Amino acid sequence: MKSHLLVVACLVVSAPALAAPPASKEARPPPCQDQTIERSIWPQGTSLWGTGRQVAEREMSSVLASVEMGRARLGDKTLSGLRLKGGRLVAPSASQELVGAVLQGAASDGTPVEVAVCGAEVLAKDSSLVWYRIQVWNGVSASWEDPCVATGRVPSPRALAVPGVWDESGARSDKGGKFTFACENGAIAKCVNWGYRPWAKKGGGSLAELHQACTRMARADYCGDGRSHTREDNLIDVYDGLSVLTRTTESSEAWDVKRASFEAAWSAEGATCLSRTRDGQEVETLMAQCPGRFEMAQKDLGEGDQCTVVRKGGAKAVLLRNRSYGRDEQVMHQGVAR
Q1: 174 and 248 inside one domain
Q2: Beta strands 83-85; 66-68: pairing state
Q3: Name one Pfam family in it (predicted).
Q4: How far apart are CA 83 and CA 39, in angstroms?
Q5: Could you tell me if 135 and 255 lie in one domain?
Q6: Hey, which end of the chain has fewer CB within 10 Å, N or C?
Q7: What is the pLDDT of residues 146-180, one digit of tens each?
C-alpha cells in the first residue's frame, strides 16, 4: 500500500526561557503537577525541536536541546543504565518505572536544565515508539513547566525520545549517552511521525539520513544552516526513493494536484537543488543568503521534477523531494496535516 503525506508547516509560540536550576532544591514543588503555564508569544516559523526559544530573537535556540541518560534519578535513587531502544527509554530493570524520573538536560547554548518524565504513552501500532509528557525546571519562575510549544492544532503536545543531538545549524550528531526530547510540533518529531524513524531500516538501509533530510525539508532549510523559509499553513507533499512516502497523484479536498508543483530535492545537509522557494522569495535572494552554495543551472530529476538552481561542488544524494503550492495557490488552499 502506498503512503501519502500532506503536511502543514505551522506557526508556533514560545515557552518562557529557562535558567539553570538553583543550588537549593529543598523548597521546590514536585514535578509533573497540573498547572497553567504563562507563555510569551511571537512568530517563530517551523520549529526544529518544537520547544520554546531560549532567546526570543534567535530562531534556532531551544530551552531543551539535549538530554543525558547517565544521570537520571527517581526520588532519592539513581537510575543507572538507562538506555534508548528505538524511540523508547528503557530502564535497567523491567520493574522500574520511568514516570517521575528526573534527567539532566541542556538548552541549545549548553545551560543545564532538569527534565522530569511525567507520563508515557506507548504507540499502539508500534511498541518501539513512546510519546512522553515532560516538564523542565524554570529557575526564574521557580516552577516546573512544559517546554513543548502548543499550537491550535496540537494544544497539548507530547515529546518523542529520538537518538542524536541537533545543534543550532540544524545539524545532527551522535553523542554518547545523549538524546533529544523532540516535541510534537517540531520538525524532528514530525519526521518520525511521518515514517522516517532514524533507528529503523528499509530496503537494507538506515532511515537516519532520510530523517535528517526530512528535518531540513520540513522547515524549508535550503541552505542547511538552520534558517527556515516557510510560512504558516504551507502545504507540502513529500516523497522519497525508498517509498516510505510516495507522491500524491490524486486530488482531494485537502490537496489539488494540478495546482501543486515541484519545489526542491533534499539531502541531510539541505537542498540539493530547487525550482522555487516555499515562502515566495526569489531564488536569487535565497542564493545571496548562503553565498557559494548554489548556482543557476538546469537539472531534470524525472517525473516532471526540474530544478533551476543546483548545489555547487558535485552531486549530493537526493533523499527526499517535495511539491508545494506556489505563492498564490498557498493563499487559496488551506489544509490539515495527516
Answers
A1: no
A2: unpaired
A3: ADYC
A4: 32
A5: no
A6: N
A7: 999 988 888 899 999 999 999 999 999 998 899 99
| Domain span at 178 | 13-194
**Cell, residue 87:** 524511540
Q: Which residues pair with 134 in a beta bridge?
A: 117
φ and ψ at 233, to 5 degrees? 65, 30
In a domain, residue 202? The reply is no
**Amino acid letter for position 9:** A
* Grid cell listed for 68: 543525558
Phi, psi of 8 (to 5 degrees): -120, 130
Same domain, 148 and 274: no
Q: How far is CA 254 from CA 115, 151, 334, in A?
A: 38, 20, 7
Please give the backbone phi and psi of residue 242, each rounded to the nearest 5 degrees, phi first.
-90, 0
Alpha helices in the chain (DSSP H): 187-193, 208-218, 283-289, 327-332
How is residue 30 written as a grid cell?
A: 514536585
Q: Does the model's pTM come out above 0.85?
A: yes
CA-closest candidate to residue 164, choices 128, 212, 106, 118: 212
Question: Pick from 273, 325, 323: which is nearest to 299 by CA?
Answer: 273
Contacts (Cβ under 8 Å, ≥6 apart) of 333: 235, 255, 256, 259, 325
Burial class (CB in 10 A: 0-12, 13-18, 19+), 328: exposed
What the block records as the C-alpha cell of 106 is: 541542556
CB 300 within 8 A of CB 317: no
pLDDT digits (tens, 9 = 90+) for 180-203: 999 999 999 999 999 999 999 998
How far is Cα 176 from Cα 87, in angstroms, rounded to an integer? 16
Domain count, the chain: 2
Q: What are phi and psi of 283, to 5 degrees?
A: -65, -30
